[in-house]
Amino acid sequence: MAAYQHGFPVPEELAREAAEAGVVEAMTVYGIGLGNRGLLDEAEVWLQRARAAGDPMAAIALGTIRLNRGELDEAERYFRPVADTGNSGARRAMEEVRALRAAEARRVPRQPQQPGHPTPPPAPVPASSVSAPKSPAEWAGRILLRNLDDNHPHVHLAMAVLLAEEGRVDRAQAFLAAAVGSGDPEVLFWISQMHIDGDGLHAAMPHIERAADAGHPVAQHTMGALLAEAGETARAEHYYRLAVAAGHTDSYLNLGVLLRGRGDLDGAEAYYRKAIEAGDIGGMNNLGNLLRQRGDLARAERWWHRAAEEGSTDGMVSYGAVLAERGEWDAAEEWWLRAAEEGHPAAQLNLAEALLRKGRAEEAERWARSGASALASPPVPDAPVPDAPAADTPAGPDLAAVAGWLSGPAGRGDGDARAALDLLGLPDES
């Protein structure tokens, strides 16, 4: 779900419908949306349901609500169990709790946050936050106001942005070099995101790898996906296992797919089950596929049925196929129609076959054309595509904007400006 993983906006009605259908991620997204509108009592109902189902973001959202009320002990009660799993968002939230306690001792005021997307010092503000900064200068100002350590690499990065905006290129260069040279995982990850935005996912791979090697779990997950796509399964497994150890639950499913692909069915099953426990409904369909491979069709069917009921279009296709094999074509058609309407190409082709059996040739042809078009480049069965970094992706100043500020003097031959542009990794725009 893009709204859950990347903070993309989603109509509240769609989030509510999915939440009522039992999709855990949707419960969290809907609860956060309600909280952002000030409907905290109703938000907590949905967030508590999602938390009870094991969703870590829901726990972070509930903790953030307490944090905004100044209930630091209660906030910590929600953040700490998730932070102990290695979740980077919860760890940063715990940093904020500690910083706020120190700030209270110094009588330093704080700014409220939006539920579900904590903005703890010294981390950059999450992209999905409603109160996200509108400019590089605003981002930098927040970092400087909220950070108690003048030598922290995020403070250096913020200073580089502000100095570049003011035209003080030599100082900006020094601060930027200090931020990058620190090896701070969040700084390196943030810079990798700028390269992804500017150059594309694959071209940014060296920067992603640097952030991954520095210990950033989302970068580790992304490296695993890119390497798996390239067939470098040993290195992909290394990065997936690092991400898993850091608590990045999205890596469970991908690691399971990799292990199944090399014949380690026991290892794959273990990680599929971990993915399911973490609320990933895709794990249910993949577990069904694995059980089918082992010849356990009864249990495979149960997992496909559960995946379908949870809203997995892959599960709908798989369960529909079981029904069709038993001759229950009407029931199969219902599941395939639901998946086909959501754009699943295999469902569209299966639906076309079901309609053709009933003599509804015109409808069958329409669905067959849709499915054939979508399958022009078939995906690898049940292998997750490499995914861009997820909900804890930091947002900060636009490196392209910083490059724009430096391009003028660089174009006039200013060596310091040219050096700063080189550090930014962006071309001279003059």
Can you characterise this structure?
The protein has helices at residues 2-6, 12-20, 24-36, 40-52, 56-68, 72-83, 88-106, 136-146, 153-165, 169-181, 185-199, 205-213, 217-229, 233-245, 250-261, 265-277, 282-293, 297-310, 313-325, 329-341, 345-357, 361-374, 399-411, 415-424. The protein has 24 helices and no strands. 69% of the residues lie in helices and 0% in strands. Helix 18 crosses helix 19. The protein is an all-alpha fold. The relative contact order is 0.09. The two termini are 40 Å apart.
Describe the structure concisely for a colleague:
By secondary structure, this protein is mostly helical. Helices cover 69% and strands 0% of the residues. The two termini are 40 Å apart.
* Overall outline: globular
The strand count comes to 0
Distance between the termini: 40 Å
Which class best fits the helix and strand makeup? mainly alpha
Mean pLDDT: 75
Strand content: under 5%
Instruction: Summarize the helix and strand pattern as letters.
Output: HHHHHHHHHHHHHHHHHHHHHHHH
Helix content: 55-70%
Which properties best describe this structure?
430 residues, mainly alpha, 24 helices, 0% strand, globular, disordered N terminus, disordered C terminus
Write the layout of secondary structure elements.
Layout lengths: L1 H5 L5 H9 L3 H13 L3 H13 L3 H13 L3 H12 L4 H19 L29 H11 L6 H13 L3 H13 L3 H15 L5 H9 L3 H13 L3 H13 L4 H12 L3 H13 L4 H12 L3 H14 L2 H13 L3 H13 L3 H13 L3 H14 L24 H13 L3 H10 L6
Helix pairs in contact: 2-3, 3-4, 3-5, 4-5, 5-6, 5-7, 6-7, 8-9, 9-10, 10-24, 11-12, 12-13, 13-14, 13-15, 14-15, 15-16, 16-17, 17-18, 18-19, 19-20, 20-21, 21-22, 23-24
